[in-house]
Amino acid sequence: MEDDVSNPFRRMLMRTRKIAPKMVVALASNDNKTQAAIARLEALENDYTGMETVEAVYDDEASLDDDALPPYVPSYMRPTMGPPSSTCSGHFCIVCEFTSNYTCAKCGMRFCSIRRYMMIPLPEIFGLIGQT
Protein backbone atom coordinates (compact mmCIF):
# COMPACT_ATOMS: atom_id res chain seq x y z
CA MET A 1 0.00 0.00 0.00
CA GLU A 2 1.25 3.45 -0.84
CA ASP A 3 2.03 6.06 1.71
CA ASP A 4 -1.12 8.07 2.59
CA VAL A 5 0.74 11.36 2.50
CA SER A 6 1.69 10.93 -1.17
CA ASN A 7 -1.95 10.92 -2.34
CA PRO A 8 -3.05 14.58 -2.54
CA PHE A 9 -6.70 13.67 -3.23
CA ARG A 10 -7.15 11.67 -0.02
CA ARG A 11 -9.51 13.32 2.38
CA MET A 12 -7.96 14.01 5.74
CA LEU A 13 -9.91 14.11 8.97
CA MET A 14 -9.33 17.15 11.12
CA ARG A 15 -10.00 15.44 14.42
CA THR A 16 -8.62 12.17 15.66
CA ARG A 17 -10.78 9.23 16.62
CA LYS A 18 -10.83 8.49 20.30
CA ILE A 19 -10.97 4.81 21.13
CA ALA A 20 -11.15 3.44 24.64
CA PRO A 21 -7.90 1.79 25.80
CA LYS A 22 -9.61 -1.57 26.39
CA MET A 23 -11.00 -1.44 22.87
CA VAL A 24 -7.53 -0.81 21.45
CA VAL A 25 -6.27 -3.93 23.21
CA ALA A 26 -9.29 -5.95 22.05
CA LEU A 27 -8.90 -4.88 18.42
CA ALA A 28 -5.15 -5.51 18.40
CA SER A 29 -5.44 -9.25 17.86
CA ASN A 30 -7.29 -10.97 15.05
CA ASP A 31 -8.83 -13.53 17.44
CA ASN A 32 -10.64 -10.81 19.33
CA LYS A 33 -11.86 -9.25 16.07
CA THR A 34 -13.34 -12.51 14.85
CA GLN A 35 -14.87 -13.24 18.25
CA ALA A 36 -16.48 -9.79 18.28
CA ALA A 37 -17.81 -10.30 14.75
CA ILE A 38 -19.24 -13.72 15.65
CA ALA A 39 -20.83 -12.29 18.80
CA ARG A 40 -22.43 -9.49 16.79
CA LEU A 41 -23.73 -11.97 14.22
CA GLU A 42 -25.21 -14.23 16.92
CA ALA A 43 -26.85 -11.27 18.61
CA LEU A 44 -28.35 -10.23 15.30
CA GLU A 45 -29.65 -13.74 14.63
CA ASN A 46 -31.12 -13.95 18.14
CA ASP A 47 -33.07 -10.76 17.53
CA TYR A 48 -35.00 -12.42 14.70
CA THR A 49 -35.77 -15.77 16.35
CA GLY A 50 -39.19 -14.62 17.53
CA MET A 51 -40.24 -13.85 14.00
CA GLU A 52 -39.33 -17.32 12.74
CA THR A 53 -41.52 -19.13 15.27
CA VAL A 54 -44.72 -17.42 14.15
CA GLU A 55 -46.81 -19.69 11.97
CA ALA A 56 -49.78 -18.81 9.83
CA VAL A 57 -53.04 -20.25 11.11
CA TYR A 58 -55.35 -21.46 8.39
CA ASP A 59 -58.87 -21.68 9.72
CA ASP A 60 -61.67 -22.63 7.36
CA GLU A 61 -64.30 -21.21 9.70
CA ALA A 62 -62.74 -17.75 9.75
CA SER A 63 -63.36 -17.00 6.09
CA LEU A 64 -64.77 -13.73 4.84
CA ASP A 65 -67.39 -15.38 2.66
CA ASP A 66 -70.87 -14.06 3.26
CA ASP A 67 -72.53 -17.38 2.43
CA ALA A 68 -73.57 -17.84 6.06
CA LEU A 69 -75.33 -14.47 6.19
CA PRO A 70 -78.95 -14.07 5.14
CA PRO A 71 -79.49 -12.07 1.94
CA TYR A 72 -80.97 -9.04 3.73
CA VAL A 73 -77.85 -8.48 5.89
CA PRO A 74 -75.44 -6.05 4.19
CA SER A 75 -71.74 -6.83 4.13
CA TYR A 76 -68.61 -5.41 2.58
CA MET A 77 -68.39 -8.29 0.16
CA ARG A 78 -71.93 -7.81 -1.16
CA PRO A 79 -72.78 -4.51 -2.83
CA THR A 80 -75.98 -2.97 -1.47
CA MET A 81 -76.66 -0.45 -4.20
CA GLY A 82 -79.51 -0.87 -6.61
CA PRO A 83 -79.51 -0.89 -10.40
CA PRO A 84 -77.79 1.99 -12.17
CA SER A 85 -79.86 5.13 -12.65
CA SER A 86 -80.80 6.30 -16.11
CA THR A 87 -80.70 9.95 -15.03
CA CYS A 88 -77.69 11.92 -13.93
CA SER A 89 -77.23 12.15 -10.17
CA GLY A 90 -75.85 15.70 -10.33
CA HIS A 91 -77.06 18.86 -11.99
CA PHE A 92 -74.71 20.06 -14.70
CA CYS A 93 -74.78 23.00 -17.08
CA ILE A 94 -75.96 22.03 -20.57
CA VAL A 95 -73.37 24.36 -22.15
CA CYS A 96 -70.13 23.97 -20.18
CA GLU A 97 -70.89 20.85 -18.07
CA PHE A 98 -69.97 22.53 -14.77
CA THR A 99 -72.32 22.28 -11.82
CA SER A 100 -75.48 24.27 -12.41
CA ASN A 101 -77.57 26.23 -9.95
CA TYR A 102 -80.30 27.45 -12.31
CA THR A 103 -82.98 25.88 -14.51
CA CYS A 104 -84.57 27.41 -17.59
CA ALA A 105 -88.29 27.96 -16.95
CA LYS A 106 -89.17 27.40 -20.63
CA CYS A 107 -87.30 24.25 -21.49
CA GLY A 108 -86.03 22.84 -18.16
CA MET A 109 -82.38 22.84 -19.23
CA ARG A 110 -79.84 23.52 -16.51
CA PHE A 111 -77.26 26.33 -16.67
CA CYS A 112 -74.60 27.75 -14.36
CA SER A 113 -74.82 31.50 -15.07
CA ILE A 114 -76.78 34.12 -16.99
CA ARG A 115 -74.00 34.19 -19.57
CA ARG A 116 -74.49 30.47 -20.23
CA TYR A 117 -78.29 30.96 -20.27
CA MET A 118 -77.88 33.18 -23.30
CA MET A 119 -76.03 30.33 -25.03
CA ILE A 120 -78.76 27.69 -24.48
CA PRO A 121 -80.27 26.67 -27.83
CA LEU A 122 -83.95 27.55 -27.67
CA PRO A 123 -86.30 24.64 -28.35
CA GLU A 124 -88.52 26.83 -30.56
CA ILE A 125 -85.65 27.26 -33.00
CA PHE A 126 -85.09 23.55 -33.36
CA GLY A 127 -88.80 22.76 -33.52
CA LEU A 128 -88.87 20.71 -30.34
CA ILE A 129 -91.93 22.42 -28.90
CA GLY A 130 -95.27 22.18 -30.59
CA GLN A 131 -94.62 18.85 -32.33
CA THR A 132 -97.30 16.32 -31.62
Any descriptors?
132 residues, mainly alpha, two-stranded antiparallel sheet, 5 helices, elongated, metal-binding, HIT-type domain-containing protein
Describe this structure in a few short sentences.
It comes from Salix viminalis. By secondary structure, this protein is mainly alpha-helical.
The total of beta strands comes to 2
The fraction of residues in strands falls at under 5%
Number of H/I helices? 5
Give the helix proportion (percent range).
25-40%
How do the helices and strands follow one another from N- to C-terminus? Answer: HHHEEHH
- Biggest sheet record: 2 strands, antiparallel
Widest beta sheet: strand line-up:
1-2
Write down the overall mean pLDDT. 70
Structural class: mainly alpha
What oligomeric arrangement do these chains adopt? single chain
The residue ranges in which pLDDT falls below 50 over 5 or more consecutive positions are none
Span from first to last CA? 104 Å
Shape: elongated
* C-alpha Rg (nearest Å): 40 Å
Pfam families: zf-HIT
InterPro entries: Vps71/ZNHIT1, Znf_HIT
Organism: Salix viminalis (Common osier)
Keywords: Metal-binding, Zinc, Zinc-finger
Task: Tell me what you see in this structure.
- The protein is mainly α and 132 residues long.
- Among the domains are: 19-50, no CATH class; 89-132, no CATH class.
- 29% of the residues lie in helices and 3% in strands.
- The chain has helices at residues 21-28, 30-47, 49-52, 114-117, 123-126; strands spanning 102-103, 110-111.
- Strands 1-2 form a two-stranded antiparallel ribbon.
- The radius of gyration is 40 Å and the shape is elongated.
- It holds the Pfam family zf-HIT.
- One of its GO terms (biological process) is chromatin remodeling.
- InterPro entries: Vps71/ZNHIT1 (IPR039723), Znf_HIT (IPR007529).
